[in-house]
Amino acid sequence: MSWFVAHTKPRCEFKAKDYFEEIGIEAYVPSIEEKKEWSDRIKKTRVPAISGYLFFELQQINYDYVNLNPFLKNVVRRFGKAAEVRNSEINAMKDCLKNYSDSFSCHNGDQVKILSGVFKNKIGLVDQIENSYLTLLVNSLKIKLSYNTTKLKVV
């Protein structure tokens, strides 16, 4: 059995995977759990780690069979042949993503980098931690800011 790669339609990775599994083809979408934040709630959702791609396993590539999936655009090719992925690489990806954590952990005095907004790429020192917000001292600007932890990265 060989693993092949398919390019999916936008935001259809999980639908394409489910379709393949319904017709008996093993499929894999590398995914991670992410926190999405709205004004009224925070929710954990599964999102593809590699957006727009799906891995599926077949004895040999059969385009008639693969093209039945309405959520796929095409099979990824390399040098005119369908790109194959080794089983060891799929297992390594699964192991790596199984231990993935999106948690943010820092302490007073740690340096963090601001990822978005007006102060993007500025580095500050953690002054105070409160729920999911940090108070930063940005020395280069001589100001104190309060940021949500989703917009920061520990340096």
Write structural notes for this entry.
β7 and β8 (81-82) form a beta hairpin. The chain has helices at 13-22, 63-66, 87-98; strands at residues 2-8, 26-28, 31-37, 42-48, 53-58, 72-75, 77-78, 81-82, 84-85, 111-114, 123-130, 133-138, 143-148, 152-154. The model has no long low-confidence stretch (mean pLDDT 86). 17% of the residues lie in helices and 43% in strands. By secondary structure, it is α+β, with helices and mostly antiparallel strands. The strands form four sheets. Strands 1, 2, 5, 6 and 9 form a five-stranded antiparallel sheet that branches. A five-stranded antiparallel sheet has the order 13-12-11-10-14, with no helix packed on it. The chain contains three helices and 14 strands. It has two domains: 2-98, Alpha-Beta Plaits (2-Layer Sandwich); 111-154, SH3 type barrels (Roll), CATH 2.30.30. It starts with a strand and ends with a strand.
Quick rundown:
The chain has 3 helices and 14 strands. It has 155 residues and is an alpha+beta fold.
